[in-house]
Specification:
By secondary structure, this protein is mainly beta. Helix content is 0%, strand content 52%. Strands 2, 4, 5, 6, 9, 10 and 11 form a seven-stranded mixed β-sheet that branches. Strands 1-3-8-7 form a four-stranded antiparallel β-sheet, with no helix packed on it. β5 and β6 form a beta hairpin. The relative contact order is 0.32.
Length: 128
């Protein structure tokens, strides 16, 4: 069992930045995906970014590519989402997640059901 605790959300003005953090405690998987999802008001949960999915580097959704880099500190079982240039379409509850890498498919890491441990969510709001 893995327990995830995330933090870093808040209320900012358009153009500002936030850094989300996710800390994992518990038994580690032999191969583990580290990811971020978000759920905007009235919308389904959507993939944002993941690391340790592909050997060549992180993967991102088109909506955040180039703006929200993901990184990790593997020695502390912690990963981050650096949210730069926040816009009015970005407010949401952001969730970190992790799960075993049981498929070689790139698309696998974008699916919610690929993850079996989730953070409690951290809310981000943006004002103009």
């Amino acid at each position: 069992q893995v327990h995830l605790v995330e933090s870093g959300g808040g209320s900012v003005q358009a153009g500002d930045s936030l850094r989300l953090s996710c800390a994992a405690a518990g038994r580690a998987y032999s191969s583990t995906i580290m990811g971020w999802f978000r759920q905007r008001p009235g919308k389904a949960r959507e993939f944002v970014a993941a690391i340790r999915c592909e050997a060549r580097g992180p993967m991102y959704s088109e909506s955040v590519k180039g703006r929200f880099p993901i990184s990790a500190d593997n020695t502390q079982n912690t990963w981050f989402l650096q949210m730069d240039g926040l816009q009015v379409e970005d407010p949401a509850v952001y969730y970190c997640a992790t799960g075993p890498r049981t498929s070689d498919s790139k698309a696998y890491c974008t699916r919610s059901d690929a993850y079996d441990a989730w953070g409690q969510g951290t809310k981000v709001t943006v004002s103009s």
